[in-house]
Specification:
Layout (H helix, E strand, L loop, with lengths): L1 E3 L5 H9 L4 E4 L2 H8 L7 E4 L17 E5 L2 H14 L3 E7 L13 H11 L5 E8 L7 H22 L6 E3 L6 H6 L6 E2 L1 H4 L4
Parallel strand pairs: 1-2, 1-8, 2-3, 3-4, 4-5, 5-6, 6-7
Helix pairs in contact: 4-5
Length: 199
């Protein structure tokens, strides 16, 4: 379980750490840098929001994972920055399983697989799997089918890149994590269920 602390203050992070949580997520680079800059070495921090290419230089030393890779050019820029800094970064390729245009991520599955294969050849990154955000609807069957589609794509990715290093399927949030787990998620990203509603 990734504890997503976006919008919440540092005191909430400290409290979560005292409760034994060491795996955190943030969706904005700048906010993460100010909140986690001095403790980045003692926690594992994942970026779950869109990474602008010009912010890739801020990843080394801060995020050990970027879960939201949605373009080959971003992965290339990130790899270059990581290599230069001697930082190894695990990445997930983001799949837009809902087809909602407001969401980032690849919609085209064969393009995702082709580009993920190229990303796997980059020296500064380890491609570890897929991340998706489920559709924001109340129809549980629709949510389940988006997650099931993501799981199938994840299996195809493992077929292409080898199963050894590709071990993470990040799907499920506060409102849909039970469905995501039933559909094969290996990582859920939980914010409001842990820390309350965001203002
Ligand atoms: C905010 C956020 C979460 C956590 O959302 P909750 O519904 O509060 O659990 C998970 N993943 C991403 C990508 C997010 O931006």
């Amino acid at each position: 379980m990734l504890a997503v602390t976006k919008t919440h203050p540092r005191s909430v992070v400290d409290e979560a750490r005292r409760a034994g949580i060491n795996l955190f997520g943030e969706n904005r680079v700048q906010e993460a840098a100010s909140k986690y800059g001095d403790i980045a070495e003692s926690v594992e921090l994942h970026l779950v929001g869109h990474l602008q290419r010009n912010k890739a230089k801020m990843v080394p030393g801060l995020f050990s994972w970027v879960e939201s890779i949605d373009a080959l050019a971003t992965a290339q820029a990130l790899s270059k920055r990581c290599e230069a800094a001697g930082w190894r970064c695990s990445v997930l390729v983001q799949y837009n399983s809902s087809g909602e245009t407001s969401k980032s991520g690849y919609e085209d599955e064969s393009l995702l697989l082709d580009e993920a294969e190229q990303m796997a050849g980059l020296a500064g990154l380890d491609v570890r799997g897929l991340m998706t955000i489920g559709p924001f609807v109340s129809d549980q069957a629709k949510i389940a089918s988006a997650f099931a589609r993501t799981r199938l794509l994840y299996e195809r990715l493992r077929g292409r890149l080898g199963e050894a290093g590709v071990d993470t399927l990040s799907m499920g949030m506060t409102d849909d994590f039970e469905i995501a787990i039933a559909e094969g998620s290996t990582e859920v990203r939980i914010g409001s269920a842990l820390f309350g509603a965001r203002s």
